[in-house]
Amino acid sequence: MKKITIIVVLLASFISAFSQNTNSERQLIEEVIQLYFDGWATGDTTKVGKAMHHSCRLKNYRDGKFVEYSRSQYLALFKPHPSPKNLTTRIVSLDITNNMGSAKVELNMERILFTDYFNLMKTAEGWMIADKISTATPHRVIDINTIKPAKEIIMQGLNRPWSIAFLSDDSALVSEKDGDLVRINLFNKEKTKIKNFPSDMAGEQTGFGDNTGKFDVVIDPDFKRNKFVYVAYAAKKDTLRTTKIIRAILQNDSLLHVKTLFIAEPYTREHFHFGGGMVFGKDGKLYFTIGERLFTEKDQPEIPIAQNLEDKRGKIYRINPDGTIPNDNPDFGSRAPKGLYAVGIRAAQGLALDTSNGKIWFTEHGTHQGDEINILKPKANYGWPMKTTGKYRYAEFAPNLIPGNVYTDPVWSWLQTVAPSGLHFYSGTEFGAWNNNLIVGGLSRGSLWRMVIEGERIKRAEELFTDDRVRIRKIAQSPAGKLYILTDEVDGKLIRVRNDAF
Fold first, then answer.
1. Cα–Cα distance measured from residue 392 to residue 63, given in angstroms and rounded to the nearest whole number
2. What tens digit of pLDDT does each residue of 10-59 get?
3. Are residues 378 and 466 located together in one domain of the fold?
4. Quick one: 128 and 189 in the same domain?
5. Do 343 and 323 lie in a common domain?
6. What is the CB-side half-sphere exposure of residue 108 using CA atoms within 13 A?
7. DSSP three-state, residue 284
8. Taking the model in full, what pTM does it have?
9. Range of the domain at 372
10. Are residues 127 and 219 in the same domain?
11. How many domains are contained in the chain?
């Protein structure tokens, strides 16, 4: 009996130790496969060879013939060349048992899709590809102007999801406004809570219109190396609340070394319009929005919050990833909040980078109508509440003129209430005719808009899925270019927008 007990204890310890190392082993395998991808893309036999064990055999069956190569025969087929145009690579699935593993990967080129199946093993030299079988599938030739958008529910059971940050094509972080920060696996539909979230999270809600919760989550541009993630959320101090921006290291589904980058003081009793949108610019700086926090203009002080250069609320900020302030930020004076970049904001949530030119666009909630799309510019004043394209909630509100102020007009405003949230510049092949179009989601009446951009002007707007409306919080693309939306529901969904013409 004693022997059996010892064996059970040892086995439990082994299983526990292995489960703790699964994430790190997965990362090591991903690094080996990435090495293979990099070498395959450019014909670099050093990289491909380093990823493969010396005994590796490569096999396929094509045109009625079985073909097999040794490692040296396979490497002899490679010649140095530029990386193919529009090449994308991804790990479709990965399974690990002890020191053995298997992976399905895809190498997607302009005209053909290669699908490889790897068996992997961990030796004294580390993880290596032990053998490979592969197949190739030519892409169907389709007119890029043929667009038939359709929805496909990929995952549900998310608690009012606010934001998504893809770690790979099948793994992502999702911030649930009314729930947790979670990691989701799109392949097996698992949802894992990220531990060690800050304890000052203001989770309780007081009733209708309460915007308290978790907001945007983004990963560092250099995430593969530094594992930094950034989260905006409603923080509490006693019964008061405000918006807080943090940075942490993501390790084994836990946040480590949490660092506060910004607190939108003062903490107040209001539970509206926290802002909380974030994006990294092409310059590597972190941009984020802070709402003015008021529900009605009746509560505005003599100098309105969003116009007061000494008040942190109602503004957009630009900081370095570590929270320090860039030297080339605009100067608003010595008493202005550190990192201040633009003012006159009511309730901006969505920020999107146009990678073709580095410009950042953002959405802005009005009151009665007055919903807008703006282009972010340094030291710009977007006018709230001095001017609006809609109406005030408090009809008698008449702000006093502020001498010397110059206001920046929106590039777009709606005649109806849309409550615009997330937005995204599309880039990809599935919806080829949509390249560099701005896709915008709305909470009111569940709208999804496609905006055709010409310079700094929205030339045309098309509303999609008018017969299938749902509140839309976020628009995002996976590393492989798939287009997704997050729905703002208690049973929130991750939905892929698919082109049925394909």
1. 71
2. 444 444 444 445 568 989 999 999 999 999 999 999 999 999 999 999 99
3. yes
4. no
5. yes
6. 17
7. coil
8. 0.78
9. 149-499
10. no
11. 2
